[in-house]
Amino acid sequence: MKSSVLLGIPVACVTRAQILSTLLDFATGSSARTVCYVNAHCLNIASTDAHYRDILSRFDLVYAGGQALVWASRLYGCPIPERVNIMDYFNALAQGLRTRNIPIYLLGASKQTVSAAAKRLAQLGLKVAGWHHGYFSAQEEERVIARINAAQPGILIVGMGVPRQEKWIYRNRARLRVNLCWALGGFLEYAAGNRKPAPVWVVICCLEWLYMGMKEPSRLVKRYLIGNILFIFRIFYDAVFPIGRRNET
């Protein structure tokens, strides 16, 4: 699979249709797979967190969850065709999960949020094998993993925030008997109905960062306002001085 290497991180050049097919194949395959998204915020973190950056390079599939990465990839001569945020293709994914009868397990967020997400997804006809909140201690981790394995899900959706979710998946990947471990950030908040996706016109105009920042200013304004400027600087610097950067297939 062709990738665009952004700030040292290989990001798959895939369309929504391609990633949907890949995810469903991973979930029903014979080997364990790890998948996560990246956006400008993720790459900012990876620029200063070597462990997180190394983990991203070891995941089976890393895809562009934000429009900024699509734009940035054009500077590297290996353009990503489109962003593949789950909210853009969730209905098609849900249909694929129902058709193939793939059970999912939800891990992350608060107890109230993850239980609401599980209920709403089950109402959509998805097979929810189980759920657990993300606020468990290191001493509870073995019990949580045992519960996940006992449920035998095809997909483990982990929503603990970046980079905790990726680090947790990578650290425990050998102990999880799951076909696909998928780091999905704030998806559980959307699935629970706590957050609403941006209107289509906002996404088309690439103003989702502004829309989300206005919805949750205390949490997101600093991330988007300062973070986006920092990301732009890093991308242009890396594009002008591409030391060690390669586009690979």
Itemize the secondary structure elements and their pairings:
Elements: E1 3-6, E2 9-12, H1 16-27, E3 33-38, H2 40-48, H3 50-58, E4 61-64, H4 67-75, H5 86-100, E5 104-108, H6 111-123, E6 128-132, H7 141-151, E7 155-159, H8 164-172, E8 180-183, H9 187-192, H10 200-204, H11 208-215, H12 217-240
Helix pairs in contact: 1-5, 2-3, 2-12, 11-12
Short overview:
This protein is of the alpha/beta class and 249 residues long. It has helices at residues 16-27, 40-48, 50-58, 67-75, 86-100, 111-123, 141-151, 164-172, 187-192, 200-204, 208-215, 217-240; strands at residues 3-6, 9-12, 33-38, 61-64, 104-108, 128-132, 155-159, 180-183. Helix content is 52%, strand content 15%.
Characteristics of this structure?
single chain; 249 residues; alpha/beta; 12 helices; 52% helix; 15% strand; disordered C terminus
